[in-house]
Amino acid sequence: MRELYDRYSGIVYSVALRILGDTGTAEDILQDVFIKLWRSPHAFDGNRGSLAGWLAVIARNRAIDHIRQRRPETDVENLVIGIEPDMVQTADWNRALSKIRESLGSMPGIQRSAIEMAFFDGLTHTEIAEKTGERLGTIKTRIRTGLKALRKALTE
Amino acid sequence: MSTHEQFADDLSLYALGVLPDQERLVLEQHLKDCSRCRQELEELRGGMGLLAFSISGAKPPVRARERLMAAIAKEPKTRPGRAVHRTPWWRPLEWAIAASAVVVVFMLASQNGELRRQLASLQFNMAKQQVKLEQAENFVASLTSPEAEHFTLIAAKTPPQPQGKVIYSQQQGTLVLLASNMPELPPEKTYELWLIPKSGAPIPAGLFKPDRHGSAVVAKPPLPTGTEAQTFAITVEPAAGSPAPTSKPIMVGEPG
Fold first, then answer.
1. Would you call A148 and B173 a contact, using CB atoms and an 8 Å cutoff?
2. Closest chain B CA to residue A10
3. Which of A99, B15, B19, B82 sits in a 20 to 30 Å window from B40, CA-based?
4. pLDDT per residue over B108-164, tens digit each?
5. What is the Cα–Cα distance from B129 to B47, expressed in whole angstroms?
């Protein structure tokens, strides 16, 4: 567990901190996510995705649950993250990171902000549409194509 | 209409945990049986994971590691049960009671399970009906709105008996096609409706096969909103449909 913590605590903490903006609560989420992994190590299926992605998405969902003050909704047993481990091996981490940032940078600003509002702020498509004055259908499509573009950037 | 396209946008909202409850129930039911949509969901979650990676860099304080290790040390461990010695004369009675209890528990659990299944099924059907009702209301509202355009399709270079009428709302991205007198097709072929935009490639707008009277309806295929239609066309395609027309249109239509 120490090794896993040393390897992945940075990503889990970064996600929680970005969403919550508060170091103390981000630390609580970090604790919560690793305790969950300790209690249910079999919830993560190593054949079906990367542990880093799995932990990052669980941290994101827990942090959004915290903001919305609702009980945890994520069923970790069923959470499969489609990032093959070899996409982001440690040796390739910097290259992967620069591809992800490049893909985000090449997105139209309006699309990037839509997926960031959905992911980091936990806003619904309706809330995003109200904020941006865009149509609901357009927001939905932007979020979907944006998420797919990120993943595609890493497989190319 | 492709079911997968219908659920495509909902999947990303589901992955992000913001899909409203009614739609979520319908989608979860679909996911149980659809490996293609499950795969799409995994890919979208993959995108979420990568988006999370984009902001990595912050380091948790050192005390967080110590706190976690201390918490893990306090986690309960599985303890072996203590052996209990009993006098042997009533052991058979104990077994009989235990066996009866197992039977009763099994019966109760099975009844309980059945009731839960029935309740879940009723809740699911109710939610599905409600979603369908809302969709139908929105559909009718968009097609009866003043901005909805009407298109009449007639056969190209053939006698004018086959006829199709397209009602299309650009703002809502919804349409309905009512076709009549359509010739029967072999099983390996289908008709495909195309939205021909003012600029860009034809957009698939639904597959259909006429009934024995030659009539067919395409209702609310998945379309992007805001696409200005120059015309509509119908081609004959392989049974699974085509992403782009592979044959010349047999019917085309202009607004009016």
1. no
2. B59
3. A99
4. 665 666 666 566 556 555 655 666 676 677 777 777 676 777 676 766 665 557 888
5. 32
Chain B positions contacting chain A at CB under 8 Å are 8-13, 15-18, 38-39, 41-61, 64-65, 67-69, 71-72, 75, 173, 224-226
| Domains assigned to chain A | 1-84 (1.10.1740.10), 89-156 (1.10.10.10)
Is this complex scored with an ipTM above 0.95?
no
Question: What is the C-alpha separation between B37 and B6, in angstroms, rounded?
Answer: 11
> Which residues fall within 8 angstroms of residue A155, CB to CB, at 6 or more apart?
A87
Do the chains contact at B16 and A18, CB–CB below 8 Å? Answer: no
Domain with CATH 2.60.40 in chain B: 149-255
CB contact under 8 A, B50 and A154: yes
B65:A9 CB<8 A: yes
What CATH number is given for B149-255 in this structure? 2.60.40
Among B39, B53, B172, pick the best mutation site for testing chain A contact (most A Cβ within 10 A).
B53
Q: Characterise B148 by phi-psi region: left (phi > 0), alpha (psi -120 to 50), beta (else).
A: beta
Distance CA A5, CA B64 (A): 10
Instruction: List all residues 6 or more positions away from B170 whose beta carbon is below 8 Å from its beta carbon.
Output: B147, B149, B225, B226, B227, B228, B229
Residue B156 CB contacts under 8 Å (≥ 6 apart), including other chains? B249, B250, B251, B252
**Mean confidence (pLDDT) of chain A:** 82
Cα–Cα distance measured from residue B12 to residue A151, given in angstroms and rounded to the nearest whole number: 13
At A18, the pLDDT band (50, 70, 90 cuts) reads: very high
Do B50 and A149 lie within an 8 Å CB cutoff?
no
Residue among A49, A81, A137 whose CB faces B173 most closely: A137
Residue of B35, B51, B225 best to disrupt the A interface, most CBs of A under 10 A: B51
Are B42 and A48 inside 8 Å of each other by CB?
Answer: yes
Any residues with CB less than 8 A from the CB of A82 and at least 6 apart, and which?
Answer: A49, A151, B39, B42, B43, B44, B45, B46
Q: How far apart are CA A117 and CA B48, in angstroms?
A: 12
